[in-house]
Structure to design on (347 residues):
């Protein structure tokens, strides 16, 4: 990335990062920061959190000036709270970071560039602001025509359940095997990890399928695009973006992501999670519109809320029930899922 000092520009930002946690007390609300710390630890020099925040990434606590002195270039607003809004305290912290010489990037629905005090601070310090949650290129309407290449889409029983982690784990495993494979980001955290992508929840509904076609174009190298899924077909608030991704991705394969300890849809206590078999079949049925040959190749389980022994038992039970490999991508890897993928989609 070349240096570029427009306050509302998209260049000039990049690692090393200071990860901002603010005052968020919900672990899911800091998933952006946690995703970067997990997948790109070499980029992260420290974390900035309010003194009463019990959450941590295990990184050194740093003020913006300390982080800048330690080599940080950019502060990442690592929160993804409900509604995607900035509190007054967050705005104040962003201005301190800009005055300390850091660029600031965010993936919230509320844009950095829409706050005049933040923009003024960026301009007076010659710093860059980047809002990841907006389409940064022209997006066509999808055409639905079959294009060369092989694609896997991660889908889920709920939102914030491990779709990005699973896609990145699959990319890592396939590359370690010497296979061409590319993670395709569709959300703000994935964009910060990959350095590119399209935040599909910021795309006008008619263009979501086109966005999926755009980020996973034709390829002729026998490689795979590992496309980060969003939302869930069964989530009343986010099913629309999930369906658009299923159609635009034209996936050859699906991996279903699930958290066994979750009892209801995130943010909706009255909505229980769907049955795994029912959810998988619904996703396959929707995907068949643009790729009738799509196959389910695995289940990715987020077992962070249970013991290792319980995790193994849960994975085995699900595998026996659905006839698919089931693994936790973080604690178990995805090798069995990749084996099944390659065997199922050979030729």
């Amino acid at each position: 990335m070349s240096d570029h000092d427009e306050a509302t520009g998209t260049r000039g930002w990049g690692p090393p990062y200071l990860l901002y946690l603010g005052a968020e007390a919900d672990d899911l609300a800091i998933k952006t920061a946690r995703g970067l710390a997990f997948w790109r630890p070499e980029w992260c020099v420290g974390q900035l959190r309010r003194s009463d925040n019990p959450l941590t990434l295990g990184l050194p606590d740093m003020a913006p000036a300390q982080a800048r002195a330690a080599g940080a270039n950019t502060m990442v607003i690592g929160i993804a709270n409900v509604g995607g809004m900035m509190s007054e305290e967050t705005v104040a912290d962003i201005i301190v970071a800009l005055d300390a010489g850091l660029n600031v990037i965010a993936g919230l629905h509320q844009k950095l560039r829409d706050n005049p005090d933040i923009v003024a601070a960026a301009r007076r310090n010659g710093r860059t602001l980047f809002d990841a949650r907006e389409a940064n290129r022209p997006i066509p309407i999808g055409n639905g025509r079959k294009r060369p290449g092989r694609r896997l889409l991660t889908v889920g029983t709920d939102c914030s359940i491990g779709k990005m982690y699973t896609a990145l784990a699959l990319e890592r495993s396939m590359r370690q095997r010497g296979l061409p494979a590319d993670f395709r980001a569709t959300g703000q955290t994935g964009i910060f990890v990959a350095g590119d992508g399209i935040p599909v929840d910021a795309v006008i509904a008619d263009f979501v399928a086109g966005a999926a076609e755009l980020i996973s174009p034709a390829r002729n190298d026998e490689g795979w695009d590992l496309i980060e899924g969003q939302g869930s077909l069964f989530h009343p608030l986010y099913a629309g973006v999930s369906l658009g991704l299923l159609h635009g991705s034209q996936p050859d394969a699906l991996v279903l992501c699930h958290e066994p300890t979750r009892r209801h849809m995130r943010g909706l206590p009255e909505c229980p999670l769907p049955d795994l078999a029912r959810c998988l079949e619904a996703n396959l049925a929707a995907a068949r519109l643009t790729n009738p040959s799509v196959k389910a190749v695995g289940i990715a389980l987020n077992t962070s809320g249970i013991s290792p022994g319980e995790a193994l038992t849960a994975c085995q039970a699900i595998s026996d029930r659905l006839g698919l490999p089931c693994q936790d991508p973080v604690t178990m890897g995805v090798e069995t899922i990749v084996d099944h993928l390659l065997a199922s989609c050979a030729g």
